[in-house]
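Cross-posted from the bioinformatics board.
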Amino acid sequence: MRALSVAATYLRLGVLNEMQYRANFFVAVFQSLLSVGVGLAVLALVYSHTATLNGWTRSELLVILGVQILLGGVVHMSIQPNMERLVEEVRDGKLDFLLTKPEDAQLMVSVRVLQLWQFVEIVSGSIVVGVGISQLTGSIGLGHSFLFLGFLLVGALLLYCFWLILATGSFWVVNMWFLSELFEGMYQTGRWPIGVYPGWLRYSMTYLVPIGFAVTVPAQAMTGRLHWGTVVVALCFAVALTVFTRWFWRFGLRRYSGASA
Amino acid sequence: MSTEVVRRREPWLRSMADFYLTAMRTQIQTQFQYRIPMYMYTLGMAAEPTIYLVVWGTIARSHGGSVNGITASQFAAYYIVWTLVRVMNIVFTPYGWEERIREGQLSGQLLRPMHPIHYDLADFAGQKIPWIAMYLPIGAGLWIAFHPSFHPRPLGIVVFLVAIWGAYVIRSFNQFILGMITMFTTRAGAIFQVWFLAELLLSGRLVPLTLMPHWSQSLAAWLPFKWTFYFPIECLVGHMSNTSLIAGLGFQLLWIAIGVLAVAGTWRLSVRHYSAVGN
């Protein structure tokens, strides 16, 4: 409970802070329009040469694209800025200030920064998902929608764990300027159904880099492709990854010796 | 006494070459110290061509082996060479200009005796050597995983080796000019994005240009983008005639010449607009 109220306080602070820079909203809208435009152009190009991609139709891929953009919005709004700040503070030694606070350190490093205007990406991703769904032939049951929403949350959790594992690496590797490039590069793989990738890449994208689970599983839930086996595996994997992330964070933190004077 | 006279009369070309070599050597040594970050960056970068390659390979296979006459293994060759060309096309970004101005670094750089683009050109040219060393294992891995069909001709290889440097210079100039926008506005990011979008679609970065609709192919013919990606890649993997190989180098030269004029012009215009920030 206390954790939630701390998070809520930081959220409120973040919103207030971002409200000072309202013009950024329009920049975010413009950039989001561009990136959705790129996604649509690529899809149009692909489907001008083929009718289905590995059994996925254009509208089904639209759902994947939407989920990828939506979860990307979550990452850009909250996960990535927090993790980048963490990496920066490990290098500068400013993490000392945070560690002296009585609240749990993992919670604190995860809720401090908010880039409010990136919620535009969440909105535009949802619109793309909506358009995709409206073009699907079969009807979407209530169960599917709940599964979809549930797995979106699981997807966000997986991406958070993945980012935190990457950022924890900064306790060993001091120079981590590549992190966002690395993540963005890998995250782009989520735009396509995981089945198109060859076996070795598919497995590493599911278990090593959980982008496959994060993006494809919600989209599968919505397009009625989800098997119960996948649901169980995905849930177990989410729990395991959360536990591992927690352990790894503490393991890394023990190495932190502070760099401040 | 006599040596001093000789030094003073040292020709411009030789002193420039000296500067470039020294700067490049320094960068090679500096960059090799940060192997893990570089490797991680290259890995992130390799994701982009891998995606394209997998997607278009899948389409080619599901259509009896080829799309517009390009087979899955030809796509593999295209995107593996793509990755090397991408490494060559890493240049000082316009976002860097934003930082230079905000942090006041530019003020110090203005005091140096040469045009600032020389420093960037030399630094990033030097970094190519460690970058390519990092690329090689990734290229080999992609090669093993995707079985490219790769039969370059000798002239193609020679032209390729020149063309990747042409691409590097053209892209450096383009991004320098783009960076100059930051002298006038602090919200240049949106403009950069439009530019990157145009590059993605019209350079052959996304797909071999022949897969694009006809109107965008004719549009690409009038723009510099295709000379930074499509042309160098096609030198190695395409079936270009000797004449079009040499003509391609000519077009690169033309764009470099235009770039020189544009860089000089925009620099003069924008540096007048610069008011120092920082300490």
